[in-house]
Amino acid sequence: MWQTSTMMEVERLTPKQFELFQKFIYDRSGIKIDISKVTLVSNRIRRRLTASSHPDFDSYYQFLKSKAGEIEVTSFLDAITTNETSFFRTPTNFDWLKNEYVKELLKEKADGKRAASLRVWSAACSSGEEPYSIAMCLSELSVPLCGWSIDILGTDISEHTLKLSRSAVYRKRTMQEFDEARVRRYFTEEAPDRYKLRPSIAEMVRFKHHNLMRAINEPPFDCVWLRNVLIYFDRESKTTVIDNIVRSLVSGGYLVVGPSEGVYDMLGMLRKRGTFLYQKP
Do both 268 and 243 map to the same domain? Predict the structure, then answer.
């Protein structure tokens, strides 16, 4: 009976244990995980128990809180916050980028209102599909943007997903919006269901670790993409993230948000340009 009970405790977080981990995750990342995710969180933490040789949730939690456990915190947050995404997710966003936005940039350049440069930030980029999709769009406009300096940055709190981003190797399921011609154009198949992004695209994007709860140490951006991430934040954390993002935009810069971010009533400092699009005055 004792053995069965112990195994049950390791299988699933108790409500009290969940509260402790929930607060720890929130304090470190701003992400508020609902109790409905207890099974998911339990499963992901249990993998870290094995990897770090801890016998139970309580022991692991105390280790995370200790000075010696600081090095494990990154792996822990990686395990909790990693999410799957895909190339060209929400195609209308990329249609705007490739058509209306680029036309606006070219007009501003022709009118002497901007230099031939463009800086784009994909915030919380996960495994890199979003910034690489942006790079693909801009590469297809190589003639009108010839001679432009283009800087595309992808950031994430997860070192694990950043490693995946830099490797630029993907499975076919992430390419739902691609036909076979586009797959062949941008990827080489290295193994069954393993596709390597061609250097011409991969080299257009740089990646760095960043926590959205903090201001980013970068020059201002012309366009920031913030999609499918703030659904995991509470209102206070969302306010902090939005303030940081808005400060990172140049005057006249654009913010592209996802349909489920829940921040539309928090963007009063920006001008609404579309259902997903806001501009800094």
Answer: yes
Residue 162, amino acid: L
Shortest CA distance to 202 belongs to which of 131, 121, 125, 149?
131
Structure-block tokens of residue 86 = 């895909």
Residues 6+ apart with CB under 8 A from 144: 102, 106
* CA-to-CA separations, 14 to 51, 93, 210, in angstroms, rounded: 21, 41, 31
More confident residue, 110 or 35: 110
Q: Is 215 helix (H, G, I), strand (E, B) or coil?
A: coil
What span, in angstroms and rounded, lies between the C-alpha atoms of 271 and 263? Answer: 14
Q: What is the CATH number of the domain that holds 272?
A: 3.40.50.150
Residues 99 and 232 both lie in one domain: yes
DSSP letter (8 states) at residue 256: E
| Sheet containing 187-191, strands listed edge to edge, beginning at the edge strand earlier in sequence | 169-170, 194-197, 187-191
**Token pair for residue 192?**
């069954």
- Nearest CA-CA partner of 255 in 236, 233, 229, 217: 229
Q: Which residues contact 219 (CB under 8 A, 6 or more apart)?
A: 119
Question: For the segment 118-176, what is each residue's pLDDT rounded down to a tens digit?
Answer: 999 999 999 999 999 999 999 999 889 999 999 999 999 988 889 999 999 999 989 98
3-state secondary structure of 221: strand
Q: What residues make up the domain containing 20?
A: 2-81
Confidence of residue 33 (pLDDT cuts 50, 70, 90): confident
CATH number, residue 44: 1.10.155.10
Domain count, the chain: 2
